[in-house]
């Protein structure tokens, strides 16, 4: 220990003052003296035998952990007590005070699999153990084959793009008459141990009519024909006219619906609106007098005895004659309703043909509504879906004006972008959600010139000196007229 401490570099401390002498580290000296005293008490190493100084380690080295198979793990787990029975075990270390207590052993219900595996006594126990052994051997071989296949790598021996029906693999599920539906087949396959994951219906049909590649319009060529270019221009004009018409409609139903007024008329209307309900000075005086009179009257009423505004409630009981009259009226009303219902039934029997026609018309109308809804749902299957926050909108057509056309690719003016075109097509085919370009607002930075870069200006001291000079000059001038 002293050797290690001496190897450590000591920190130098200034000792020019007497107060700094206490900072001296004398730990190594004290350790040396302590070691010397210890050797005087018990002796040094030279006087002791090797048996007193060293011991022979005879403990064996720990063996490497052995990897257990699934079968071995299950056997070991079978020897352990069940977790559900741990709560019933006595964990107390206190002995039973009555030694000769009668311990009643209850007969276990059912088979003891653990006892049958560890100590088979009957023929069926041995047969069960042999069956388990064969099962675990098959399981181990299957797992080994699976691991070997994973190491070798799976071979692509089938076409993953071919649509397969799981009902072809299970006999009896696919019939020609169609009595077994697909949902029932999925249910049966799950119960027979060949569970089928039910996928969404959109995976079994195309969700868009958009082609993987749409050829551009012939008018977009760098050297188009006159007819193709005029056709493209007509499409662009028609699209722009639709946009303009929509904007005009929105302007007409929003901005143009309200009348425009001049600022003077607006101020006048505001003044009238804010002064609504304000009376002239005379009316205000009369109203103040009326309020004072009403307050005095209220004070007088308060000084009198307590009285309510509502009339006192009287418990007037109906007489027997009135009750009989009311019952007769109710009976007459009921008879009137019955007669009315019978009259309506008779009228319906008379006009049964017209009722049938009405029911037929209503059924036809419902069928038309169903057809329209079905057609709408079928049409929506092949439209771009709203996968995200924004709705897909068709991009504008790329067109070159006649003056921008060139006969060669060297001088052509590019109007489109291949990457943007493919990106829009992926959005149209419901592969990517529709997004919009987001521009982040840059934080405003306060800019100011440094003092070293500023132009020399006029300071307050300079202005004060100028005023003093002007005042002295005016005072020295004798022509100044004092007011």
Summarize the structure.
This protein is mainly alpha-helical and 483 residues long. It has helices spanning 2-7, 27-42, 50-53, 70-79, 113-118, 123-152, 182-191, 226-253, 263-274, 281-303, 320-350, 352-381, 418-428, 460-476.
Main sheet properties:
none
Instruction: Tell me which oligomeric state these chains represent.
Output: single chain
Q: What pattern of helices and strands is seen along the backbone?
A: HHHHHHHHHHHHHH
What is the end-to-end distance?
A: 104 Å
- According to DSSP, the number of beta strands is 0
Q: Name the average pLDDT.
A: 80
Assign an overall shape: extended
| DSSP helical segment count | 14
Computed structural class: mainly alpha
Strand content: under 5%
State Rg.
Answer: 53 Å
Q: Summarize the amount of helix as a percent range.
A: 40-55%
Query: Segments where pLDDT lies below 50 for 5+ residues?
Result: none
Structure explained in plain terms:
48% of the residues lie in helices and 0% in strands. The chain has 483 residues and is mainly alpha-helical. It is extended.
